Class I adenylate-forming enzyme family protein
Amino acid sequence: MWPAPILELLATGGDRPVFEDGDRVVTASQMDTLVRRIAAGLRHHGFGPGRGVALRLGINAEAFAATIAAFAVGARVSGIPSGLAPGRVDHLLERDDATLIDDTTVADLLTFPPAAITAAGRPTDVARIIYTSGSTGDPKGCAQTYAAMSAAWAPHPDRWPPVIAELATRLDRYLVFGSLSSQVMLEYGILALTAGGTLVAAHPPSFPDAFVRHRATASVITVGRLHQLVRAQRAAPVDLSSLKALMVSGSPLAPGRLREALDVLGPVVFHGYGQTETGMISMASPGERFETVGRPPAVTDVKIKDGELYVRTPAQAGCYWQDPRESAEVFVDGWVRTRDLADLDDDGYLHLRGRARDVIIVQAVLVYAGPIERVLATDRAVAEAYVIGRPDDETGEAVHAFVVPAAGAVPDPARLRDLVGANLGTSCIPRTVTVIDRVPLAPSGKPDKAALGSSA
């Protein structure tokens, strides 16, 4: 049961380095002690199966140890999303009956003597709630059971699909940043440790300097940051000879951009496709089939229904936490409805063709247009509001808003951007707010967002 493979890896790893933070190097044995201390503290305070723990931690060895310890005692573990609007954190904790664990709390837990530890999670209990950005008002939580996490491929080399086995050979020094409770950051971190690599903390995550400074061989990167890295390397090249793998996360990478990245950075870009609800769906090796997002591994089932992609993965979430209505829309008879349009070619490669939902992906965060439009329309100067996404070199995609003024009023773009940020968080703030006389209409008579997009 999860996280038994990691507990075993740490308990038997001896002096092998597993976490590096500046001049501090933490061995497997030392990390094992940290995990056992924190787990003992959690158990002392009554944490165990069925109890909710919400993590808000930095990037350090203790944060990693606390994450593993929370799973080891069988708690329901979540990470507080960054950029939440004021008041959302308290609401989240109250709604989910979860206790906040921060760096100060972890310091107190480390005062307990290390004790023997086993994986206490129960298969059908929720192990992890992976929260979305909260752009719909409250963050949605993808609930993953201990059985599902135990079915994941990352800590089991015999389960690695071929492309993951190739990637694993490049994870000698895996650069971590942002939050270790991030689904993608933790998943590849576990893969790196299983492959014999070391997690290397980046403070702050500036690219490309972080790769040079930490001699990093691999990291996760969003489409926007990849564009920035390519531009920086063209303008002022630095020594990236240590770099072996960049795992692109978030929005799809356009074929032209992928070719450019490979030309500038070399054969290091692994691009693919996945969702919070499912984990990885497909991945392609560097230079493999530019126009696709790779081939789903054998353990992943895919089907196309009315042009929309449905998938089943071994470690997928089972529902949205405390949201039965949305769960019924997405989790259908054991399948996850991706709400992305796609098709498979004769060689089994997956092609994404668009979205069946009005969503924008900003720095790998899903942002929904509808809630932003509703917030903008609450301003007295706004009669109508429309939101679209456009490709963006910094963030992958960016939010752009169009507003029709109320009679006799003049909307203030700065005030409207602040209004969105205060209500929905920083990821939802429009890059631009454009005042228009009227919205263009499609032949159906409905607002034509495609026409707005061509004018953004």
